[in-house]
Amino acid sequence: MSGLGSLVPACQPLLRGGLPHTNPGVVAQFICRYLPQTPACPLPPPRTLADTPFALAAQGLPGLQIDVERDRLTVEQETLEREANRVSLAYLRSEAQFAALSGPAVTVLDELLRRLNAEERQPLVLKYETIGPVSLSLALTDDQERPLAYEPAWREVLLQLCSLRVWWHHQQLQGYASHRLAMIEEPFLDALLTPLCPLTWEEGLDLLSRFLADLPVHCGLFLRGRVHWSELLHLPVDVIGFHVIEQIDLLLHTATELAEFLTDGGCLAWGIVPTEPRVLNSVQAAGLCDQVVQAMQRVAAATGLPMTLVQQQSFLSFTGSLSYMSPDYAERALDLCLETVQLLQQNLDSRTT
Q1: How far is CA 316 from the centre of its chain?
Q2: What is the pTM of this model?
Q3: d(Cα 172, Cα 154) in Å, to the nearest integer?
Q4: Residue 353: its pLDDT value, please?
């Protein structure tokens, strides 16, 4: 783990995914209002298949086909075989512009940076996000509907493309915040533990480890499902984002590794603010604050670390992306997150005074 140095989140909010609003100016306004110290380059709302996180992560891959009728992303194998060396050559030459995004993702990024520049603020951290190579290799299929993960050569190409994408983002954000943070979404990592997965857990972990070690920036993982936490906590990452209710018990089974991660400066992003409208309607900030504090106390007790250290090295996050919600519900989730953050920070202040 590289360590975030002087970054102490102290329960600041961390956006996951994007927002559903289609006006880039509105998106930038909400991000600066609700995340003044931790603004995020949001993924665009998935109005079309081309705007989805997986399509954005695969943008620029030779042979990529967006099948709108079947709602699938496929890769024409002949084109990939013929032109894959373009990706590898750009990677070897560190030509990050090869992986430059286009379309709505760039429009909203430009608007956010314009607003940050106009306000002349220096936030603590500016975060961006992309799908990682393991999940991307499992999601993309060839002409025979086989995941690209079956072929080691294509896994390497995807690693290179994902790495170039992070490098490109990193360059775009230079000078806008004290820290830049690349959060890697790996939603299919738990699939590696299933019998029919084309990748073994060891192969997937090796791919992910080499990808993360190659990045030029502080980085983290957003994780879902049942995974081997003991191994993931040893990866070169600075932040681990997880679903509190679903994953806290599993995480606590690796208390030794978790203690090492936090002692070395690692941070946790507590996914507690719900993104399901049904759940969102039934929760309050005080209840979420209590849940997080109790979970943090369990981490402190299991690891033997001070409660204040756990709180200081924590972000507060969401259980998923707000992009798939209605604008009204997304704003409700942002309000709820901000209220919960304020309560958590009051709790932290009371412990440090």
Answers
A1: 13
A2: 0.93
A3: 27
A4: 57
